[in-house]
Amino acid sequence: MSKVKQNQQKSTIPLVSAKALPVNKATNQAVNKATNQAVNKATNQATNQAVNKATNQAASQAQPEPQLKSQLKPQLQLPLQPKQASQLSQSSQAQMADQLIEMMPTGLVMLDGDGVVVKINKVARSLLDEPILGQLWFNVIARSFKPRADDWHEVSLKDGRRVKLEIASLGAQPGQLIMITDLTETRLLQDKVGQMQRLSSLGKMVSTLAHQIRTPLSAAMLYSANLSNRKLPDNARATFQEKLTARLHDLEQQVNDMLLFSKSGNEQVVAPLSVNELINDSVQAMDALIIKAKAQVNVHLNSDDCQVLANKNALAGAMQNLIHNALQAAESVKLTPAIVNIQVYVEQSSVYISVQDNGPGIDLAIIDKIFEPFYTSSSKGTGLGLAVVKSVLEAHQGEVNYLSQAGQGAHFCLQLPLLAKNKLGGTK
């Protein structure tokens, strides 16, 4: 500042000697004042120009290029938009869920509250073999499904394949989710395995059959020969007739057992069957043997007449085998009267038929063998009775269990699935 002031003084005041130019005090003050104002003005202008120039240069250096600004803008905006990020996450999850549904090995069909197909995956499209999106499910049923009498708990498609349908609700959302599982190959494999098992028993069956039939047949032929004697007394004739009839009944029972055992697969024709009707008919069919054994049969039926999908002849044969075994057990220990209690009850989706007698029960040492074909502890048995019961129950998607201890009477419990009221799904 002092240098600038000196330069300004040199440019405005001539250099003269103080002695040569006398100046009064007022003049000096005026000159000094004017000089200071000029210097200050010039200094301020220069300072402002320098500051403005430096500021502009710094601002231009700090400001990013337009291209850089365009690149940074999306990155600066993303953290400021949480709703957009949430929507993007939900969209990704929905897309992933759709991909998983499409790749599932089970067919999936989703219906809305009106029974219209709103979603279907690849497996379901392949099984149903027609475009069904946006159509009523009941119309799809009429075109794609062709139920058969031997469907059991599956449903047949029009091309012969068998599928299992499972129906689930969508929770709070109206509609249904129908899962379709192709059981065609599984059922074919099960049939082949069952056939091989029965063929493996064929050799043993033939030898056992020859022995079991030969004994009552030889006795029947002997009784028949005695009856041909015209000199035979009437009382002896009546005795031989009764024994002949009994041996023929034994033959019939053995033949029926073997037929039931060989035909207890899935090829049997089934229909809805009342469980109460099954029990009553089975007891009536055994009426003659019950009277002969002087036995007491107590039947306790379920108040709600439940139904199962079954072959009536096969299930009736299984029930009659259990009743016949109970009567034979009482006879083996000369127990009078023989008591057989039959009870029907329902739990969840199954119906249970309990058959219990007051005989000696079954020895624990042979419990694991009682359901094997041709195994018997009785000289009069074929060894097929309980094997028939087990085979028939398994063919009906059920099971048979032995419950009691030795010395407490035999107690068998049959379990069968209740008839499903709606196997195909849909909303009416």
Describe this structure in words.
By secondary structure, this protein is of the alpha+beta class. 51% of the residues lie in helices and 17% in strands. Strands 2-1-5-4-3 form a five-stranded antiparallel beta sheet. Strands 7-9-10-12-11 form a five-stranded mixed beta sheet, with helices on one face. It has a two-stranded antiparallel sheet with strand order 6-8. Strand 11 and strand 12 (411-417) form a beta hairpin. Helix 12 packs antiparallel against helix 13 (385-395).
List the helices and strands and how they pair.
Elements: H1 2-12, H2 25-62, H3 66-77, H4 82-103, E1 107-111, E2 117-120, H5 122-128, H6 137-144, E3 155-156, E4 162-170, E5 173-182, H7 184-200, H8 202-227, H9 234-262, E6 271-274, H10 275-285, H11 287-292, E7 296-300, E8 307-310, H12 312-332, E9 339-347, E10 350-357, H13 385-395, E11 399-402, E12 411-417
Parallel strand pairs: 7-9
Antiparallel strand pairs: 1-2, 1-5, 3-4, 4-5, 6-8, 9-10, 10-12, 11-12
Summing up helix and strand content along with how strands pair, one would put the structural category as alpha+beta
- Give the second-level CATH assignment, the architecture of the largest domain: 2-Layer Sandwich
Strand order of the largest sheet: 2-1-5-4-3
Relative strand content: 15-25%
Discrete helix count: 13
Largest sheet: 5 strands, antiparallel
What is the mean pLDDT?
74
- The CATH topology of the largest domain, please? Heat Shock Protein 90
- How many angstroms does the end-to-end distance come to? 101 Å
CATH class of the largest domain: Alpha Beta
Helix amount, in percent?
A: 40-55%
The arrangement of helices and strands along the chain is: HHHHEEHHEEEHHHEHHEEHEEHEE
Secondary structure: number of strands = 12
Parts with pLDDT < 50 across at least 5 consecutive residues: 1-28, 71-78
Compute the number of structural domains: 4
Gross morphology is elongated
Rg, Cα atoms, Å: 51 Å
CATH superfamily of the largest domain: Histidine kinase-like ATPase, C-terminal domain
